[in-house]
Amino acid sequence: MSTGTAPLAHERRTRHDKGLSKGSVGLLGSVVIGVSTIAPAYTLSGALGPTAAAVGTHLPAILLVGFVPMLLVAVGYRQLNRAMPDSGTTFTWVSKAFGPWVGWMGSWGLLAATILVLSNLAGIAVDFFYLALAQITGNDAIAELTRNVPVNVATCLAFVAVAAWISYRGMEATKVVQYVLVVFQLVVLLWFAAAAFGHVAGGTAFDGLAVRAEWFNPFGVETFSAFAAGVSLSVFIYWGWDVVLTLNEESKDSTTGPGRSAIATILVIVALYMAVSLAVLSYSGVGSAELGLGNEDIQENVFAALAGPVMGPFAILMSLAVLSSSAASLQSTMISPARTMLAMGHYGALPAKYARITSRFQSPGYATIAAAVIASVFYAVMRVVSENVLWDTITTLGMMVCFYYGVTALACVWYFRREAFRTTKAFLTKFLAPLLGGILLLVFFVQTSYDSMDPEYGSGSSIGGVGLVFVLGVGMLLLGIVVMLVQYRRNPSFFRERFETTELPVLD
User: Where are the membrane-spanning stretches (predicted)?
Assistant: First the structure.
């Protein structure tokens, strides 16, 4: 960078305002977007079976255990947001605490995770789109269109384009869409849970188990391997709540509102998960026969198997709920990478074009389009190569989530190290909670990385005798280092100068 442009770059890094639409999101809207990103209908459909297969009737206990590190990390996120309400979240906070190099890699973990899940959500939306059409028309052949690769990819690109268009139009358009889709899927999930409990009470359930206190005991899981596998799955199903923090510059109360929204989102989700998981467990049991959760034939999509027996003629609503869940999450998930890249462009960690704001909608237009294009290309390539490869890239998502959540939580501990011991509240919220949450998630990251070296991990694919999930995970991090070094060559000033943000006083 020439000396003539250096002052401008420094000014960009010290300015907090990026031009986003201020005050456009309240507490309710933020929580709705958070729930949408987590995508409960889609997530539960694919996660309940494998989790129950790993831990049996202790499914509710494992979901609660997975909730703990999320809550601990959310406490740390809330404190960081109060000090630095910046849409860059992980990028901004980790850069401030540990320096620009670590901050850049932390944000790369976030970007990798969101791009991975965007492609997966689009693929799931395609599957349920054609399944719903088949159910509505009574023509089963329509459901098979999803296996036609050109049709699948073309439909997927259309879904991503629509989601990007809504995100491009800013938060007002996003909120309208999210209210409708989120409310619909929550109503259907609660309907499903109530109907399942009704079958149990009426003696018409497949297995008909009574809820027992021992289901909530995580120490009842037979082996540590099963416990670790269950926790890894449960951590994944909570991922996405941090999107509400990326909306801090657009929130009505930027310093405290997003933190409250994050906690509220997690509490809403854990309550919903408990209701639905207990209903499914009571109705189906964990056996391997027919509708049992141990049946491998139904584990990829539990709701597709159970919706008919539980909801009768209204089963079509569950297909539509999962479709709306994946479509809503596809759109809301785009918020996070777009605003992260916006912040990186704003502070000089990416080219300045990523910091462009649309004058009409006050949204990160260029970054939104970039996220959509990258996710589309990634999905198209992976879908053409192999469905197994695409599946393993989604398994890699868990590694990326644990990595960037863990690093961000520890950034809270380090950033507040001088004031964390002044009061009991500061010790608990700025030191102990984020420290425990960060360590737990980084331990999960290391354990998952080690386990994924086994060729049998994930789809069973391998390269040179090493599991494909491990190769993809390490390859993704190495790619991040390469991109970071390229950006260092283009704009070394960001990496050489002290990272600055506009900070606000933090009140205990």
Answer: 20-39, 59-77, 108-131, 151-168, 180-201, 221-241, 262-283, 303-323, 363-382, 394-416, 428-446, 466-488
SS (H, E, C) 439-500: HHHHHHHHHHHHHCCCCCCCCCCEECCEEHHHHHHHHHHHHHHHHHHHHHHHCHHHHHCCCC
In a domain, 3, yes or no: no
Which tens digit of pLDDT belongs to each residue from 302-359? 888 898 999 998 988 998 898 888 888 888 888 889 999 999 999 999 999 999 998 8
Say whether 127 sits in a helix, a strand or coil. helix
Beta bridge partners of 463: 466
SS3 content of the chain, % helix, strand, coil (to 5): 75, 0, 25
Contact 108/340 with Cβ under 8 angstroms? Answer: no
CA distance 95 to 107: 9
What is the SS3 assignment for 159? helix
- pTM summary value: 0.85
Is the distance from CB of 250 to CB of 240 less than 8 angstroms?
A: no
The encoded tokens of residue 162 equal 């629509």
Beta bridge partners of 25: 251
Please tell me the distance from the alpha carbon of residue 368 to that of residue 330, in angstroms, as a whole number.
12
Residue span of the structural domain in which 300 resides = 23-494
On whether residue 10 sits in a domain, the answer given is no
Q: For 294, phi and psi rounded to 5 degrees?
A: -85, -5
CA distance 119 to 381: 11
Helix 59-83 / helix 257-284 crossing angle, nearest 10 deg: 170
Q: Two tokens at 335?
A: 């918020």
Which residue's structure tokens are 């409250």?
Answer: 260
What's the N-to-C CA distance of the chain in angstroms? Answer: 41
- Could you read off the pLDDT of 333-342 as tens digits, one per residue? 888 899 999 9
DSSP state letter for 17:
-
Question: SS3 sequence, 172-227?
Answer: HHHHHHHHHHHHHHHHHHHHHHHHHHHHHHHCCCCCCCCCCHHHHCHHHCCCHHHH
Distance of CA 468 to the CA centre of its chain: 22
Q: Is 284 a member of any domain? A: yes
SS (H, E, C) 401-427: HHHHHHHHHHHHHHHCCCCCCCCHHHH
In a domain, 502, yes or no: no
Domain total in the chain: 1
The enclosing domain of 42 has a CATH number of 1.20.1740.10
